[in-house]
Amino acid sequence: MGATKHDQWQWENATAGAAAGFATVAVVHPLDVVRTRFQVNDGRVSHLPSYKNTAHAVFTIARLEGLRGLYAGFLPGVLGSTISWGLYFFFYDKAKQRYARNREEKLNAGLHLASAAEAGALVCLCTNPVWLVKTRLQLQTPLHQTRPYAGLYDAFRTIMREEGFSALYRGIVPGLFLVSHGAIQFTAYEELRKFIVDLKSKGCKIHHQNPDKLLNSVDYAVLGATSKIAAILLTYPFQVIRARLQQRPSGDGVPRYMDSWHVVKETARLMELGKATHGQKMLKVPLPAKPLGSALLVLLKVHGNQEKDNMAPFECALTFFFLLYLLTVR
């Protein structure tokens, strides 16, 4: 009976993960299309329009391609996200069961991270073909010179016929490196949490108080957002490498990039060339993000010595505008 309930719990986790994946894609897919087009825009892609920023990209795509352009690759996006989240929770739970076998104590943080990394790697191997098709559908525009894919099935069939089975796993290496995203976020979260607890405990009159009671809901929101941003900034280059590797080959059938190292070398060369000809315009890094991140940390330091009722609205406002900035600046 206990085993049956546990199996039911596993499938409930997988179902909940799949539903979360679907909802996420349905809401933010237009931004994902914009992100993919920015990632592959190295100055050599002739079939992609030039966008100034995120807002300009959204309006341009909507004007030239309509709603269909904003939701290009939606079906593989939904399929990939639903399968990914469902499989992730399933593999993660199975890995924890295996590590917990013959152990009386609870799993430590290291084993939780190992379980997450194992689940992420397995999901990456299972879903890379779907993400590749999604990327290629998102990059199709009216300026495309080759015959566009008619949909998910046509894309798979065309890739298998023209490039072979191995083409479905282009970008798998940077995809596996992206598994470290969760570990980085977890580590950043824990270190920032210790830092804030130490600051607040120094000004607290009650000694030996439970650390969790020192933090309020705003603190946890800031911790989650800041650790997520740290993980994104550290792993984002791997997303760019994967997106550029997964592009459709040019008309002669030759891939634009042969492997991950080729992407790194060519990107560095094009950035140097861009600096020499256009100053700093080729450097697509939002430089103000660093001082804004510092402002958040300073705010947290001040919060340790202020009344939380007075500071909470200000914290919420700053956090909101910081996240809005990251969404609107490429």
Task: Compute the CA-based radius of gyration.
Answer: 23 Å
**What's the number of helices?**
11
Q: Sketch the major β-sheet.
A: none
> Could you spell the SSE succession in H and E letters?
HHHHHHHHHHH
Distance between the termini: 53 Å
Mean pLDDT: 77
**Shape label:** globular
| Poorly predicted sequence stretches spanning 5 or more consecutive residues | 277-330
Count the E strands: 0
**Helix amount:** over 70%
Instruction: Quote the beta fraction.
Output: under 5%
Q: Structural class, judged by helices and strands?
A: mainly alpha
Write the layout of secondary structure elements.
Layout: H1 2-40, H2 54-70, H3 74-100, H4 109-138, H5 152-162, H6 172-177, H7 180-202, H8 217-245, H9 260-278, H10 289-303, H11 308-328
Helix pairs in contact: 1-2, 1-3, 3-4, 7-8, 10-11
Description:
The structure is a single chain. By secondary structure, the protein is mostly helical. The chain contains eleven helices and no strands. It has helices at 2-40, 54-70, 74-100, 109-138, 152-162, 172-177, 180-202, 217-245, 260-278, 289-303, 308-328.
